[in-house]
Design goal:
Length: 307
């Protein structure tokens, strides 16, 4: 169960958690016509709090709606303010934040007509996404039997609700088969991403990650590329085959929810030493320092607030 907080921001005002409801004829409920974000806020070691790359998440949200062909009712800056308002109202020093912009009720049928576009922001406590031990020990994953969307079947650059049916199928299959997460291949058979994460592999101290063409432009992915470069590692954005993963020295997932999660096994092949490798560990440690407000070089990524 989601750990409830007190209020949810809906269309410009805070409403009690239990009253943040929609009609059953909400267009998005029937046709997946919504877009969302996943954002995290962290309590820093100096007692303040920060939302990680908040404005960039909100820009991606507005862009996601634009890709689907509708206009988000609030600007990225208004959504930034609303997020901080929601965190403060709920006295949340750290949180997972879920903004959602969706087509509401009005006409039925595939064409959304002039149905109202609704906006809400929910924030709550959400711990380790892939299990308590995952960040430390790494996870076992499988390559999914489902492919990631072809770029002209779904709009992969939009974090669209409907896109996630594909993720749900892959994730359920992985869990059913005893794995923690799925890796999806694109329709040409190359590695794309996890059900809710981007993916990196390390081979002889070089990092590799699939190009942005067919995957979500993850902000964690972008942060890790910068961090790796600044730490002296080369990062190659290139096509990756699943066989390259099997023989990689290290593989890890990145995402707001997953943070930086090592992968220790893929399809019954042990990756490297079967635990978080040295490059993964280093990047994870440095990344968490940034998230906890302990690296002034990356202060521009943090939106500080006092809960
Ligand atoms: N790919 C996909 C498909 C994806 O859903 C996410 C985030 C990412 C990559 C990483 O993006 P970023 O968070 O900007 O680094 N997935 C969100 C939703 C997860 C969920 O289960 O819900 C998230 O991590 O919040």
């Amino acid at each position: 169960m989601v750990q409830e907080s007190e209020t949810i921001w809906m269309d410009g005002k805070l409403v009690p958690w239990g009253e943040a409801n929609v009609h059953v004829l909400t267009h998005a409920l029937h046709y997946g016509t919504g877009v969302f974000e996943g954002i995290r806020a962290y309590e820093c070691n100096d007692g303040t709090s920060e939302v990680f790359r908040l404005r960039e998440h909100m820009v991606r949200l507005v862009d996601s709606a634009k890709i689907l062909g509708f206009a988000a009712p609030y600007t990225a800056d208004e959504m930034v303010e609303a997020t901080v308002e929601t965190l403060k109202a709920n006295k949340l020093k750290g949180a997972y934040i879920r903004p959602l912009v969706f087509v509401g009720a009005g006409v039925m049928g595939v064409h959304p007509g002039d149905n109202p576009i609704k906006t809400c922001i929910t924030a709550w406590h959400w711990g380790a996404y892939l299990g308590e031990d995952a960040l430390e020990k790494g996870i076992r994953v499988k390559v999914s039997t489902y492919n990631r969307h072809h770029v002209n079947v779904m709009m992969t650059k939009s974090k669209a609700c409907g896109n996630y049916v594909n993720s749900v199928l892959a994730k359920m299959e992985a869990i059913r088969d005893g794995y923690a997460e799925a890796i999806l291949l694109d329709t040409s058979g190359h590695v794309s991403e996890g059900s809710g994460e981007n993916l990196f592999m390390v081979k002889q101290d070089v990092l590799y990650t699939p190009p942005l063409s067919g995957v979500l432009g993850g902000l964690t992915r972008d942060s890790i590329i910068s961090l790796a470069n600044d730490t002296g590692y080369e990062v190659r954005e290139t096509t990756i085959g699943r066989d390259m993963l099997y023989t990689a020295d290290e593989v890890f997932f990145t995402g707001t929810a997953a943070e930086l999660t090592p992968i220790r096994e893929i399809d019954a092949r042990v990756i490297g030493e079967g635990k978080a490798g040295p490059v993964t560990k280093l990047l994870q440690t440095e990344f968490f320092k940034i998230l906890k407000g302990d690296n002034p070089d990356y202060e521009h990524w943090l939106h500080r607030y006092e809960a």
